[in-house]
Structure formats: structure tokens, C-alpha cells
Amino acid sequence: MFERCVSVLVAVQLLASLFLPIPLSTAAFQAGADEQASSSFLIRKRVVEVQATFTVRDRHGHEVSDVEQANVEVFQDGERASVIWFRQAQDVPLRLMLLVDTSDSMGPGLRDAARTAEELVKEFVRPDVDSLMVQSFATEGGPRHSGSPQIVSAGFRGIRAEGQTSLYDTIFDTCQALESSGSGPERRVILLLSDGEDTWSHHALQDTIAMAQRANVSIYAVTAHSRRLVVRGDDVLRQMAEETGGEAIILHRYGQLEGAFSNVARDLRTHYVVGFRPSENPGRFGFHPLKILVDKAGATVRTRAGYYSQ
Do 33 and 91 fall within a single domain? Predict the structure, then answer.
């Protein structure tokens, strides 16, 4: 969320005769007026503008690419909000962070993830428009790599599975970094390769989700395991994705990663960003539930569950 402040200068001029027992000369009166003007009150009226990213799919699960502003309604706290502007995917830069979990439990899939990273760069990032960073993590985040496909790919060379997992802390810190990347219309996304297990973080899951919502970051999570297994981390990944407007993709083997990345790429290339003025008094702080409706038959909208005013 970003805000624009409109300043209104109100000059308050007091009569000197109310404070002095003798009449003032014209020159003295003017000097007093100038002094009062220099100590004027500055009243700021805060006009809040919230940014929300969303995707639309039809009844068959296909991306809808022809949505216009006239089709969009935004509701905050159950009340209609005023839409200020609307952007389609091609008009919005993408800020993408690829996070790869390198904890012990991720061992079998790491090499596949590294090999697929180069294809990810080619499919997701438009030169001179989008930006990509990659980072591996276990108990602490590794170095972040950004730039050309060659540099990004180099970030995965030599990684191996080891240690515990600080999943929540890593996502929390990443959302903070993405939030500081800019305030204009942009799509902020974390693409996470992880089994959803966390054994080392200081932050709780809900803290991490709240940070992602505050920073307007969508989380796309990808994991893989046998169909016969019930993995606790799947529910964690689903919750993070659903509440931030992303998607959780559960694969049966890591050999399917390339297809999963292609699906995410299509999703990111058919998204929309809307700016709106909240219906609620901006002085009310805290969480505000958010809902976006699109006037298209059978359309399903995916966006973050809400946002935090500060």
C-alpha cells in the first residue's frame, strides 16, 4: 500500500490589538502579520491508495486475458471501494524472487530445481522490464543473485541439502526486501520450492503471511512427493498461497517442475493490478478483508485475502 499526502496551508492571522494595550503603527502591524504568517498551521489530509494484484480464470480453469476496468469491482471490509486505476500484465513490471529450500528433506529434488532455473529465467523475465533474484536457504538465507540468466543460474551451482529449515524467516525477510523495491504498480512474487517444513524460524506462519499481505507479495509454492504420503507441509504451502493470491502446486515427482513453472509463467502474464481508495476511514488501522469481483460469466478471481493499513 502506498499513500499520497495532499498538503493544505492555512494561514491564521491574529489581531495585535488583542494582545497589546496600545495602538500599533502601520509598519508594526505589517511586521506582526508577517510573523504570524510564518508560524501558520500546516494541515495534511491523508488520501490512501491501495494496490492489489489479481488473476482471473474461467469455469474451465483457463486464464482470462481480456478483463477491463469496467468489469472490476473492489470490496474492502464488505463495502464497495472506489477504483482509481487499472493495469494489465504487460503494463506492470514483475519483481520475482525464486527461493529454493536446501534443508535435509529437500535432497532428492535439488538438482532438478537447479537445472530448471535457467528455463524459469527465460520464460518469466523480460529484459529491462522485470527483475529476478534467486536465493537458497536452510537455517539462514544464502546470498541473493540477480541479473542475467548466467548469473542467476550460477546461484544454484554447488548447492546441496543440509541442516534444518527457517522457511518462515526467509519468506518474511524476502517480503521486506520486495516491499522496498518500489511503490509504483508492480507484481511482486515469490516462487518457492520447498516441502513446507519449518524447524528453525523465529517468526510464526501467520506473521509471515501478514508480512506478505502487507508487502503485496503473492506466493507460488511448488513441492513434490509420492501420492501415498500425507505431508504436513502441504497445508502450510496451501495456506500461504491462498492468503496471498498465489497458488500451491503439489507434484508427484520433481521431474514435473518444468511444466509447473510454465503454468506459473502463464498465470503471471495474465494478471491485473488495480489501485483503489479504501471505503473505510484510513484512520482505522489493522487488517482489512479484500474481495475483487469480475463481471465475466463463470469467472473466478484469485487475490490476497486482505491488507494491513498502517
Answer: no
Exposure on the CB side of residue 285, measured as CA atoms within 13 A: 1
Determine contact, residues 178/217, Cβ cutoff 8 Å: yes
pLDDT in tens, 110-162: 776 666 766 666 777 888 899 888 888 886 555 555 554 444 444 555 555 56
The pLDDT tens digits for 210-241 are 999 999 999 999 998 888 888 999 999 999 99
**Burial status of residue 103 (CB atoms within 10 A of its CB: 0-12, 13-18, 19 or more):** buried
User: How many domains, the chain?
Assistant: 2
Judge if 34 and 176 occupy the same domain. Answer: no
Domain that holds residue 189: 51-310
User: Do 134 and 27 fall into the same domain?
Assistant: no
Residue 185's DSSP bridge partners are none
